[in-house]
Write a structure and sequence with these properties.
flat, five-stranded parallel beta sheet, disordered N terminus, mainly alpha, three-stranded mixed beta sheet
Length: about 950
């Protein structure tokens, strides 16, 4: 039983209006309980402004009054006007002015008042428990604090609960010493910390009657856990109709700091000294974080001189330490301080800060950010500084460089001579930042104005480059040809236009023109710059590759790399091209070495538009090595880097890797989604090589989902194209085998022979490439039913998936020849199963297990592991795979076909899934899968 029934009705975690203070509330209840039992006690409460000290004292006082305590309270309103002794006399009901009967001398009169307070407290304690609640003791004079400690000592043993609070801002040494001494004497001391996310959410629910959505919750967290700031923010947003509630959920309609919140911030800052407020104003304009030495430089002083102001801001909780810098603790407070600075003053401060940072030789991006906001249209010196910053910032932050260049153009009068050069710079930096649509729009707009011939040609060159990157090869070539027809074109621009034309010709349908053009350039190197010559070698390398001369292609690509090493031809990415070709022929170690030597060249040089190239190539390397999960992760990263309208070739390459990886991992539906994402760009801008690769994987997906009959037309087209363009056979060592296998399944031996002939011709003309030879042997073994050829292919393929595929074909061939070859069939299929399992090719492994079951052999494949008995974690790998397919809308028959199991087995697994998840329908299962995949 509870010994104090009166306290049992109190909420265990404190009043509903005081969230997140369960521990502090418990300490206050302990204080009251001790006084109720006749003992004195002291609870010390401290914290930053707005953390709820006064709220806690008010709630404790309310609870004490309800339980019969005699109350003696004083807070900021009293202590800011009259001394502590007079405040307590008033709280005890004494007439502070009259003081009738007291001595006339002031020292004696003060002692008499002190004694009256002690006696008054003692008298009240004789009648019952007393709560003395004193807030904002940082306002009290040191002598009064000494007296307060004396009263507490004199009343020890009496039922008096002392609840004392102070702010850590302007705390003063006396209040700090008092708290230290009282804690030493045995008082309990608590510091109110910022509220956690749950408490903040609770306050929002209390105020709005709705649960904050993720966006509002993230905005609320910027209050830094300060309840005073949060309640002011919510009240202001609600009053300004900037929060919308619907079906019990609240969302932020507009992100504006309401006036009520700004007033709350001013109230907190008003507790700081004027010098500290001045420092914080300048610091806020500098940014969310700042270094003390930079702040001192802007203020025209030394770091040592501003230490007292920084200390005050730190103790107030306005600033906090963030590594080697200081930062505003609350994002909303920083925004409020910034917004409070009038725009003209803000711009002037940005200008000053930019000048200081620029002069100190600090990060160019930091100086640029301020100068962009502070420089005005007529500020020629400031604009010239921004011009220089574009070049400084470009290598480290192309996006920032583009922003600076655009800002400079916007502040420059088109009638000024500098406008054309600044526009050219802006278009160029936008390209290098990967913002191709913006670059194209600015170039088109500029081309409508009267321009010099050189400026017009320069803009046309840049526009042509943009068109090429977007995959619009024909338009890019036409633009470049028009530029080259201009008389008197400067050599530098002529080389640029030639290079754009060359790149566009490479991507066009007929590479003969590109090869002739490139050959003419390399035969007259003295007439052209190194960048153009390097580009010509790359063109010739790709042309040789397309003509099935692989050794020559690698030689020319290596020559391009050699020439690029001594020139500024980095933007052509010769190492990337060489690594791509090496990956095609499965010289993976050499490809990795080339990639490593390239490093982050695309980023270091500032050409962000090509920054995804290394990621896409690494994804291809992972795919070739059978690391499908790694391939997907890296390709997705590369795709994210080209999420804007970046180079089409990178986007299509990344999507191609993802499609193949998804297919080989056993998810043809996901593979189809990647193909669908690539299709719009392919139909409008695609190169023949990209189209061939996607046509192949699209057919493989269709066959995986619907069988060989679904790909008859597409297969015929692919087989007919192979003799003229064997790029697909080179880049995928399993392509020839798949085409032959599928043609034979359709009883189309003639087309199968076409593919085998092309594969063998490719191997014959390139004797130094084992991957090409293995692919030809694999295709021939399928066509002729040659077990020896398939066995050699299963050992010679460099690609692990290709090795497993050849072993499966070997096992299937043996199984088709009757019982006498049963052991050979099992051996081949076991080899294939080990290969597929080793690289996570789940669907292929399932197909091989079905072949083995038909031979009377069962191989365990679903690992049990330590699983719970119910819930999502209890599902086996097979059950999860079935759940995902059912969630995609597949029927039991379609699921069975995908996983190479029977419909009966599918239904059996589905019943177990429903039981483990405690659901009763496919709709509920789909919803659960969606939740787990978030």
């Amino acid at each position: 039983m509870c010994p104090l029934p009166a306290y049992c009705t109190e909420e265990a975690h404190g009043p509903a209006t005081m969230r997140g203070r369960a521990a502090e509330w418990s300490a206050a209840l302990d204080l009251l309980a001790a006084a109720h039992e006749g003992r004195s006690g002291v609870l010390l409460v401290e914290g930053e402004p707005g953390m709820g000290k006064s709220r806690l004292l008010r709630e404790v006082t309310r609870t004490a009054r309800a339980r019969g305590f005699s109350l003696v309270t004083a807070g900021m309103l009293e202590l800011s006007r009259i001394p502590l002794v007079e405040s307590l006399l008033s709280a005890l009901g004494e007439d502070v002015i009259a003081d009738g009967g007291g001595p006339s001398a002031e020292p004696d009169r003060r002692m008499w008042r002190v004694e009256r307070i002690r006696a008054g407290l003692d008298e009240r304690a004789g009648a019952g428990p007393v709560l003395v609640s004193l807030d904002d003791l940082q306002l009290v004079a040191p002598t009064a604090l000494v007296t307060l400690r004396a009263w507490m000592s004199q009343l020890t043993g009496r039922p008096v609960a002392w609840l004392l609070a102070r702010s850590t801002v302007k705390a003063g040494k006396a209040a700090g010493r008092l708290f230290d001494l009282l804690e030493y004497d045995g008082a309990r001391r608590i510091t109110l910390p910022p509220l956690d996310d749950d408490a903040l959410t609770g306050i929002v629910i209390d105020m709005l009657g709705a649960v904050p959505d993720p966006g509002l919750a993230a905005f609320v967290r910027q209050s830094g856990g300060n309840p005073y700031l949060l309640t002011g923010l919510m009240a202001g947003l609600r009053g300004g109709n900037e929060i919308q509630t619907c079906n019990g959920s609240a969302r932020l309609v507009a992100v504006r700091l309401p006036r009520r919140f700004q007033a709350a911030v001013r109230h907190l800052l008003d507790q700081l000294s004027p010098q500290t407020r001045h420092l914080l104003t300048v610091a806020a304009i500098m940014g969310r974080s700042l270094s003390p030495d930079a702040a001192a430089a802007v203020l025209g002083t030394t770091p040592a001189a501003i230490v007292p102001r920084l200390d005050e801001a730190l103790s107030a909780g306005v600033l906090t330490v963030a590594g080697e810098e200081l930062a505003f603790r609350h994002g909303l407070l920083w925004q409020a301080v910034t917004d409070a600075v009038p725009v003209p003053i803000r711009k002037a401060l940005h200008r000053q800060i930019g000048d200081v940072l620029f002069g100190r030789g600090g990060p160019a991006t930091a100086a640029a950010a301020h100068l962009m906001q502070g420089v005005r249209a007529a500020d020629s010196r400031g604009l010239a500084e921004l011009d220089r910053l574009v070049d400084d910032v470009l290598p480290v932050s192309p996006r920032t460089a583009a922003d600076i260049a655009l800002r400079v153009v916007s502040l420059t009068d088109p009638a000024e001579p500098a406008w054309t050069d600044r526009t050219l710079t802006a278009v160029r930096t936008l390209i290098e930042a990967g913002r191709l649509d913006e670059a194209a729009g600015l170039a088109e707009s500029a081309l409508t104005r009267p321009l010099t011939a050189a400026t017009h040609a320069g803009l046309c060159c840049l526009r042509s480059e943009i068109l090429h990157m977007q995959g619009r090869a024909a338009e890019a070539a036409a633009d470049a040809a028009t530029i080259l027809a201009e008389p008197g074109l400067p050599d530098r621009l002529r080389d640029v236009a030639e290079l754009v034309l060359l790149n566009a010709q490479v991507a066009d349908r007929d590479s003969t023109l590109a090869r002739q053009h490139a050959q003419a350039i390399v035969e007259a190197p003295g007439e052209h710059g190194d960048a153009l010559v390097t580009g010509a070698f790359i063109t010739l390398a790709l042309a040789a590759w397309d003509a099935d001369d692989l050794a020559e292609g690698l030689r020319l690509a290596r020559e391009a790399v050699r020439r690029a090493a001594s020139t500024d031809a980095w933007c052509l990415h010769p190492r990337m091209i060489l690594a791509m070709l090496l990956t095609d022929v499965r010289r993976l170690d050499e490809a990795r070495s080339v990639m490593a030597s390239a490093g982050d060249d695309t980023k270091v040089r500032g050409r962000l538009v090509w920054a995804a190239a290394p990621a896409v190539l690494r994804a291809r390397l992972h795919l070739a090595a059978g690391r499908f999960d790694d391939a997907v992760a890296v390709a997705e990263a590369g795709l994210a880097a080209t999420s804007g309208p970046g180079p089409h070739v990178l986007m299509s390459s990344a999507l191609g890797v993802l499609a193949v990886a998804a297919l080989r991992s056993g998810d043809p539906n996901a593979a189809q989604r990647y193909v669908d994402r690539a299709r719009p760009g392919l139909s409008e801008y695609g190169s023949p090589h990209a189209e061939a690769r996607f046509a192949l994987v699209t057919s493989q997906i269709a066959m995986a989902r619907d069988g060989a009959g679904a790909v008859a037309t597409a297969l015929a087209e692919l087989c007919e194209q192979v003799p003229g363009h064997s790029w697909a056979l080179v880049s995928d060592p399993t392509a020839a085998a798949w085409l032959v296998r599928t043609a034979l399944a359709l009883d189309d031996r003639a087309r199968a022979e076409i593919v085998v002939g092309a594969a063998e011709r490719l191997a014959r003309h390139n004797p130094g490439f084992p991957a090409v030879a293995a692919a030809a042997e694999h295709a021939r073994g399928l066509l002729d039913g040659d077990a020896c050829a398939l066995d050699r292919a299963s050992m010679d393929h460099a690609d692990p998936w290709a090795r497993a595929s050849a072993a499966e074909d070997l096992g299937a061939l043996a199984a088709s020849r009757g019982t006498g070859s049963r052991q050979a069939a099992i051996a081949g299929l076991d080899q294939a199963l080990a290969g597929y399992d080793g690289i996570g090719a789940a669907r292929d492994a399932a197909r091989v297990r079905r072949r083995l079951r038909r031979l009377g052999v069962r191989r365990r494949h679903w690992t049990q592991g330590d699983r719970p008995v119910s819930g999502w974690g209890s599902l086996t790998d097979a059950e999860r795979r079935i759940s995902e397919l059912v969630a995609q809308g597949l029927t039991n028959r379609q699921v069975a076909d995908q996983l190479f199991i029977s419909v009966h087995t599918t239904a059996f697994h589905l019943r177990h899934i429903f039981r483990k998840l405690q659901i009763g329908s496919r709709l509920e299962l789909a919803r659960r899968v969606m939740e787990e995949n978030r």
